[in-house]
Write a structure and sequence with these properties.
six-stranded antiparallel sheet, Beta-Lactamase, two-stranded antiparallel ribbon, transcription, Arc Repressor Mutant, subunit A, alpha+beta
Length: about 325
Amino acid sequence: MQTEPSTATASRAARPGTPAAQGEKPANARSRAQATAQVPTAGQRVGEPLLPVPPDAESTDRQFAINLARGLQVLRAFTPAEPMLGNRELADRTGLPKATISRLTYTLTLLGYLNRSEKYQRYRLGAGVLTLGYPMLAAMQVRQIARPYMEKLARETRCTVNLGMRDRLNVVYVDTCRPGRDNNAQPDIGSTRPLLATSIGRALLIAESAKERAAVLNRLRLSDPERYALDRDIWEADRAAFAERGFTLSRGDWLRDIHAIAVPVRQPPDEERIALNCTVVSRRLADDWLERTVAPLLLEAALRIERACGVTDASAAGIG
């Protein structure tokens, strides 16, 4: 198994658009990010300056479809931990009036996006939600391109290998390769992770433009100040280290027993930012195993995926 960084490792660590390539000092980058953090205006969700105006009655954006946004709020309220919710619980989670919730759940049920359990008098997500997600996944060419490299990486490292993209303040996995049942880190496609507390989330933030990154960090800070205060030092340290090593690293930052290493995967302009990670349960780890053994293989896989997508150092000069 490869143990020394390859030429690809050095190439990725100093690729265009990263702090390493720009000679940017972390302290200066942090100052600029703070200076460009935007204060939301009337009608905007706190901390979300670059994202659409939220579904509230005070919105001045006439293009914003409030009823549609409220329906999507209802769908987003369901989680793996709480797959069945009643109207009262949905009202509590969305902040919407119960009468509004009743109309929305009735409509979403007729359209097939919710199913109602007569036994429990509650709702669960319907098959219509899945039909919305499949075309998006099927159209992501990078998933098909990355798959053989992810499978090879999973075999070589015995890690679970995941491909993720940002969904507002979270990471959502769009593909995953599982090496075997001996690794408990086995997420599903569509499962989410927090941004700052995970290596893949931090890799995605590093891949963003400075303007978008400042906006996301601002929203994280204002939406959950306590969580942001806990994660900020980890983010700053990992970002600074990325400039030297070309990857982000989590030693149980989100879940104590799950360690992970991640890299951004550059894409052509106008494509979604994506990142690749390797995750493993901590009981299987030697002290520097991720950095010494897994990192070179992960960096090599990411570089090969980029090249297969048509991204080279020259073509990526304006990305990020």
